[in-house]
């Protein structure tokens, strides 16, 4: 007929409220950020030494329409231009998730825009697609306050968790050790900074678990740090916090890097993606870069702003799920225990 | 004018659509089910049954609390988002006032709507009609039902209690107030969303971005933090 079809650009609006960031972003064609707004509540939670769920939920209600408006004006788009609304369904704090989910449903209803549910970790992994195109099969090391996982992907939108923590997440261990060293919340960045100037001379355990396992365990290490501090106090000895931080960090990173390298080999992947808030850790970045500098596998580490919780990553993942036809109805609920394999079809 | 009212502040789920002359549609349930799953489908169904689309709406009225923190937040989040994105005014009404408005119209005295707030406490306030308009006599608050009942005995008129949680506090109230206390009938204990819509219909729209639930109480962690810091200051 001589007609030609113009490919229309795809715009996905993402909403993320699973913890203490209220975030909205708009992504064009799955890879291009046209708006990315994050309102952090961290200052409000600091005085409590951690995130208080009720207070997080209250802040989300205060912030969400402001953040939505800011994102829409950054993008200079109208809702008729938006193809899908992607929202974090879980995991996370249920009261916090509910705010994003219900706002997303209201938008979806008001403008008859398809609703796309997204797993928070799928989002973290897809933050990498805003940096470079994904090359399958790939492996993603997800490290955050609530998660430590190795995820294998054979193709877009398909997730296989090959290893995960059996007790504390790495970020949790960081926060607890920081508390032992009397550092303010959140402790991760403080430990990382101290570790840069300390020497890893204190002997701490590494939990390799059984042969061939890609699972993690950090509670033994955390206890060992606490015991080391106690024993030193009792003997009237002083331990340099810098050295303790360096030794702790070395132990965590040893396990993370070694297991990631091993899985990279076994699964013959083309790419390794770092994901999650702990990806901001300098020590971890450096060691991974060193290790992957010696082998022929691409390592991708997103910039800090895309490692911590944001909605650009939710929209980026949502773009793929939208294409795959994944939809939620207006009865979508928050699901704090959501499994990432819901996206596998 | 088509006003959509949403109330999810306690177990009852209420949605209504009214215009100047009539209640066009109303949906009420009182079951222990998850509001998050049910509110938007209920709104969608009611609009559809009334042959309306979201763009026909001209105002959103929402029950602003007090009540279940999570429940109030679900309604308020949906109301704020709809109001913002449809560019129509948002009005918040006390969740207690809705109950009082429905039963107090023809009652010659004060109305005390109540929700149980655990450990002997209630959320309540005192309302009364004056020249056909409802007035707040005592603002919404949280206190022991016993203390509240005692306080009300100072009034020289009967007080009508209304709310699904009356059975939890009736004995205490009657003990303090005797015949002065009257109690609404079973069919009047659910807040009527149409009443909510009428209460909000002629009130001025509020700033959407700064609109927040009226929790009455601070978050527990915040109360503890303030107490701890005051203790530190006085040392
Ligand atoms: Zn996260």
UniProtKB/TrEMBL annotation, chain B:
Gene Ontology CC entries for this record: cytosol
SUPFAM superfamilies: Actin-like ATPase domain (SSF53067)
Keyword Transferase: yes
CDD domains from the UniProt entry: ASKHA_NBD_TsaB
Gene Ontology biological process: tRNA threonylcarbamoyladenosine modification
Every Gcp-like domain range: 31-225
The UniProt record lists the keyword Transferase: yes
InterPro entries (alphabetical): ATPase_NBD, Gcp-like_dom, T6A_TsaB
Keyword line: Transferase
Molecular functions per Gene Ontology: transferase activity
Protein name according to UniProt: tRNA (Adenosine(37)-N6)-threonylcarbamoyltransferase complex dimerization subunit type 1 TsaB
UniProt organism field: Robertmurraya kyonggiensis
Organism taxonomic ancestry: Bacteria, Bacillati, Bacillota, Bacilli, Bacillales
Gene: tsaB
């Amino acid at each position: 007929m001589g007609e030609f079809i113009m490919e229309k650009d795809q715009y996905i609006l993402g909403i993320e409220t699973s913890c203490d960031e209220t975030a909205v972003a708009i992504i064009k064609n799955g890879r291009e950020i046209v708006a990315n707004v994050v309102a952090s509540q961290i200052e409000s939670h600091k005085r409590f030494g951690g995130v208080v769920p009720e207070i997080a939920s209250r802040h989300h209600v205060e912030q969400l329409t402001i953040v939505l408006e800011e994102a829409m004006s950054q993008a200079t788009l109208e809702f008729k231009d938006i193809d899908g609304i992607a929202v974090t369904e879980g995991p996370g704090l249920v009261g916090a998730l509910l705010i994003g989910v219900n706002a997303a449903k209201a938008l979806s209803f008001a403008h008859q825009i398809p609703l796309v549910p997204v797993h928070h970790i799928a989002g973290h992994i897809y933050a990498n697609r805003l940096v470079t195109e994904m090359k399958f099969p790939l492996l993603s090391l997800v490290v955050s306050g609530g998660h430590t996982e190795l995820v294998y992907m054979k193709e877009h939108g398909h997730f296989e968790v090959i290893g995960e923590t059996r007790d504390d997440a790495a970020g949790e261990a960081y926060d607890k050790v920081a508390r032992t060293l009397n550092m303010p919340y959140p402790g991760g960045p403080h430990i990382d900074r101290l570790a840069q100037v300390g020497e890893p001379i204190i002997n701490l355990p590494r939990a390799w678990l059984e042969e061939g396992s890609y699972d993690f365990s950090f509670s033994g290490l955390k206890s060992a740090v606490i015991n080391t501090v106690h024993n030193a106090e009792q003997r009237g000895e002083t331990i340099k916090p810098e050295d303790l931080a360096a030794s702790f960090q070395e132990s965590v990173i040893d396990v993370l890097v070694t297991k990631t390298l091993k899985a990279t080999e076994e699964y013959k992947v083309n790419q390794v993606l770092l994901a999650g808030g702990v990806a901001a850790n300098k020590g971890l970045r450096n060691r991974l870069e060193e290790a992957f500098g010696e082998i022929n596998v691409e390592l991708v580490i997103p910039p800090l702003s895309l490692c911590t919780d944001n909605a650009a990553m939710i929209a980026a993942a949502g773009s793929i799920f939208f294409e795959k036809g994944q939809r939620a109805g207006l009865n979508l609920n928050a699901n704090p225990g959501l499994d990432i394999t819901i996206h596998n079809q | 004018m088509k006003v959509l009212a949403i109330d999810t502040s306690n177990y009852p789920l209420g949605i209504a659509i009214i215009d100047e002359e009539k209640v066009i549609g109303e949906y009420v349930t009182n079951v222990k089910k998850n509001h998050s799953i049910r509110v938007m489908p209920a709104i969608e169904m009611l609009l559809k049954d009334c042959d309306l689309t979201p763009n026909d709406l001209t105002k959103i009225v929402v029950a602003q609390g007090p009540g279940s923190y999570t429940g109030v937040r679900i309604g308020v989040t949906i109301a704020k988002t709809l109001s913002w994105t449809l560019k129509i005014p948002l009005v918040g009404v006390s969740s207690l006032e809705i109950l009082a408005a429905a039963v107090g119209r023809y009652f010659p005295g004060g109305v005390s709507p109540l929700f149980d707030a655990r450990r002997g406490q209630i959320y309540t306030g005192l309302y009364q009609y004056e020249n056909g308009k409802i007035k707040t006599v005592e603002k919404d608050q949280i206190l022991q039902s016993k203390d509240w009942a005692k306080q009300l005995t100072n009034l020289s008129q009967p007080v009508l209690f209304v709310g699904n949680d009356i059975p939890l506090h009736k004995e205490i109230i009657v003990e303090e107030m005797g015949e002065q206390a009257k109690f609404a009938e079973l069919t009047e204990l659910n807040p009527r969303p149409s009443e909510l819509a009428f209460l909000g219909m002629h009130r001025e729209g509020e700033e959407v971005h700064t609109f927040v639930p009226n929790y009455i109480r601070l978050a527990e962690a915040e109360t503890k933090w303030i107490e701890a810091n005051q203790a530190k200051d006085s040392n």
